[in-house]
Write a structure and sequence with these properties.
The chain is mainly alpha-helical. It has one domain (3-47, 88-221). 63% of the residues lie in helices and 0% in strands. It is built from 10 helices and no strands. Helix 2 packs across helix 3 (71-78), helix 5 (101-114) packs antiparallel against helix 6 and helix 9 (185-195) crosses helix 10 (205-216). The protein is globular, with a radius of gyration of 18 Å. This is site-specific DNA-methyltransferase (adenine-specific). Belongs to the N(4)/N(6)-methyltransferase family. It catalyses: a 2'-deoxyadenosine in DNA + S-adenosyl-L-methionine = an N(6)-methyl-2'-deoxyadenosine in DNA + S-adenosyl-L-homocysteine + H(+). It is an enzyme of class 2 (transferase).
Amino acid sequence: MTTQELKKLEDNLWASANRLRATGGIKSADYAVPVLGIIFLRFADNKYSLYEEQILKEFSESQNTRNPENIEKIALRICGFYLGEKSRYEYLLNLSDSNSIAKAIKEAMEDIESWQDEKFQDILPKDNYYNIEKEDKTILPELLKTFSDIPKDASGDVFGKIYEYFLGKFALSEGQKGGEFFTPTSVVRFIVEVIEPYSGKIFDPAFILNFSKSTINPSYNKLSA
């Protein structure tokens, strides 16, 4: 993806997401983490898709051995995380209007965490989505549609740029400057997993804390691209 194509994608994603926020009368501060969580789900699905064929192949071969592995264990070894059917982006995207999308997203986040070690428990956003659904039931389905525009072959670098772009936009929409914008821990963890910041300068203290953890303990960085 060229720089120009990425910029156009970022602008289009933000315009759509921000229009939904304004229509629902939701503050940026209450919108940022849920939106970044949905971007995370898109990233996770993209990455899992890259390894899915290999995961299924090894699972099939394993069933003919004395010590067969379950598919979750194989996925963790190959991809770093496991996505069950109800955690897949297409599943969430295609849910009917009669379903609670907030509940489905929460369950998807819980399922992803359930296969991780203690360091990844209670990290992903979950209950935040209920407030949005309470304000306007159409927002979450539309957000899922919006971020489905991120190409299936988008790399971790592309997602890192999109995260960075959205964080900046949320900060500006709150009338805050970089140093004044509080980055929630869960959001920081998302960024660490996606862009793997192993060099350069980091200006957010919360980001530094999580960067240090992921650098010192490689197992902490299981969801990296």
